[in-house]
Specification:
The protein is 43% helix and 15% strand. The protein has 31 helices and 27 strands. Helix 13 crosses helix 29. GO terms for molecular function: sucrose synthase activity.
Amino acid sequence: MAASPRLLKSDSIADNMPEALRERRYLMKRCFARYVQQGRRLMKLHHLMDELEISIDDQAERAQVLEGTLGYILCSTQEAAVVPPYMAFAVRPNPGYWEYVKVNANDLTVEGINATEYLKLKESIYDESWAKDENALEVDFGALEYSTPRLTLSSSIGKGLNFVSKFLSSELWAEKEAAKPLVEHLLSLQHLDDKLMINDTLNTPAKLQAALVVADVFVSSLPLETPFQNFELRFKEWGFEKGWGNNARRVKETMRSLSEVLQAPDAVNVENFFGRLPTIFNIVIFSVHGYFGQANVLGLPDTGGQVVYILDQVRAMEEELLVRIRNQGLNVKPQILVVTRLIPDAQGTKCNQELETIEGTKHSNILRVPFRTENGILRQWVSRFDIYPYLEKFTQDATTKILELMEGKPDLIIGNYTDGNLVASLMANKLGVTLATIAHALEKTKYEDSDVNWREKDPKYHFSCQFTADIIAMNSADFVITSTYQEIAGSKDRPGQYESHAVYTLPGLYRVSSGINVFDPKFNIAPPGADQTVYFPFTETQKRFTQFHPTIHELLYNDTENDEHIGFLQNKKKPIIFSMARLDTVKNITGLTEWYGKNERLRNLVNLVVVAGFFDPSKSKDREEMAEIQKMHMLIQKYNLKGQFRWIAAQTDKYRNGELYRCIADTQGAFVQPALYEAFGLTVIEAMNCGLPTFATNQGGPAEIIVDGVSGFHIDPHNGDESSNKITNFFQKCKEEDEYWNTISEASLQRIYECYTWKIYANKVLNMGCLYSFWKLLNKDQKQAKQKYVNMFYNLEYRNLVKTVPIPSYEIPKPVPQTTVRPQSLKRRQPPRIKRWFGA
């Protein structure tokens, strides 16, 4: 497709399109006539281009159209609703920016329309009478965001923490009384009944600033390592409480940071100061569906990467909390509770155990709460798509238990996936606690046109409930944690997962003219890391898991074929290119195999080893995987790969997998991630952590992880020849330049250490929790107004939708056994404080 000119930001599609159509009027009349001749339908970009090619059969004329303004507009169109004689275009010139225009195919007149008008035309394809109903429910969350500042550049999306810091730095310096909310925030800080930072003596900005000057002079006269306890009483006389630091040096740094915030703030210092505040001690993390546990759960229904993510997240956050609390000079034990569902029929796991200590932590536990209905406790696993009838009661039961165990409210609540985010939003709203949400995956974007076709899929997936729960949680959240930019706003050609919730419709149910705004500063990118006790550089020989070397050598090099590996490597001295993923179409392992098979230069330089799926199609229950298995066998035969290719069945031991990456690095090989699309790319992070040069898809998250040509390489999964040649050229250069492989290996490690570790993640997320707690206070009135709107939508729409989800009949009225186990590090100080919140 030819490159097209960009419009200026001041230009609108509606202003430019009429002239563009006039320039090619004859051709466009013919093209638009073809577009509308099949009647009402929804067209995607590829449909528009296919029919344009048929309509304009002259290649030169077609190229002229595509190279001009009209070509740019058409190429920026995501979809078009055809309702003869009209076509309504949803045009996305840049990530986050949308414009809607309506064209009359008869006379090519153009009219700019708004989101609601576009949706009505789109709805008329599926439910014309509802589309014309003036009383059809329309949801507009944007109407309640009249005063919230917004980012403006597509490139700034996901940098909410930085934006809020900049905004606060300008506001706090704007006028003398602007710092009053900050003083009120500092006065509100406490842990249990202990005041922190300042007391009521310093209740104005002027008093606080004056006291800071006196305290700074005093603390500057002390030896830097003087414990805070030595001068705590003197500080208390001036209005200061504990929390400033554990010694004179730390106290002085925090006080000067606050003085700068009050006098001449900048964004970096604002974030630094709020990160030092003793704001967060107790965290609740919700992950409701599936089997959440630490052993024997991966591979069970609805149980996968989210469990690994959360367990690694908890360990990192507890470690960071302990460092912060120590630096703040406090004697406080943090608590993190991962709250999930208790499943009585636990399938040999610990999912029927109410409390479980999280390994590698001192103060973190899994709390399991059962699903209850009027018929009793649900004993069996239930699909994540059928989970909605249980969530409201689950929230109530979980809240009661959390308040009892923590002896108070948590300081931060984090939700995960649709169900966990909804539960987290209900609890946060009830208790007035700062809320963060993590989508992991938004199902709406996985199934094309699942919104307009919701009726067809609802009996199986209950998307009406899921999409409603998603939009409720998004709008309730104080901040949203994502792993990549593309998760929020996609790429130039593809909308992001969150962006697809900006404007959409469920015909016959409700339309959303403003669902979520990706320019909202609540959006933040905090990519996870890999467990660095498992995935570490191959050069750290003393740490390596040498006990796995015999089995790994057998996996890679044994010439005998069996149930775990087929194919063999004749020349065992050649470097290995390696890939590990599910065996499905999107992961594109068969695509990589074909690239290798077709490239003789590459085959002469390296061997190929893949870890994926089964060898026998009959062992798979997935039709797509079965087809990929058969395709893999076909490719092995077609390209005569035996002697250069090893196919290893899926591996689940993460410790052995970590050592496998390092053994590939020992061969001076490389990791290849060839997916057609990859939302994040955890295997890319794992490989780079091990010092393995990595080639990864340019479609999705890996394009953000790797700096092309520096810390690895981008490959185009849709251009196999180009990709295989890029890999070939790398290994050819390694043969010619002894240090080239090491240069890329070291750069990949540097990239990981700078951006992709759990320590960086934990620090960033806790900084978000501290800063957004204050941001919520500043926008309290608007937040409350919007929450009332959200609550109304929940009560009037979501609760009715839940009633359509059938509840299984195999529930047994049976009380949950009450455990006497207490979570680690918790000892009850007094009778439960639940009465304060529930009045019981």
